[in-house]
Design a protein that fits this description.
mainly beta, 13% helix
Length: 106
């Protein structure tokens, strides 16, 4: 039995002032989360894949996508503006595998 998959890691969570929900028009109720997907093998994390933004309204519970917002507000979904990176433990499986391979070669 091979156990592999991915886990989503929360890097940052924030609210944006002066931004209303496009679905229910509630003022300042949007919460955005910067997330990162980390792949694992036998529950050992090997490497992070990509970061993405997920937005949700606290009032109505609906998810908010880039297309739902006006053009100047879409900059929130640009992940390059956030300095947070994947945690260092997400590379531990790759590091262990590399050390084992180097040990076996030498």
């Amino acid at each position: 039995m091979i156990v592999f998959g991915w886990k989503t890691v929360l890097l940052k969570q924030f609210k944006v002032k002066n931004l209303d929900c496009p679905i229910c028009n509630t003022k300042e109720s949007l919460v955005f989360s910067l997330l990162c997907r980390v792949y694992h093998f036998f529950f050992i994390p090997f490497f992070p894949d990509f970061r993405y933004i997920y937005g949700v309204c606290e009032h109505c519970g609906e998810s908010v996508e880039k297309i739902d917002l006006e053009k100047p507000e879409r900059e929130i979904f640009n992940v390059k503006q956030y300095p947070e990176k994947a945690p260092i433990y997400s590379w531990i499986g790759s590091l262990i595998s590399s050390l084992i391979i180097i040990y076996l070669i030498l």
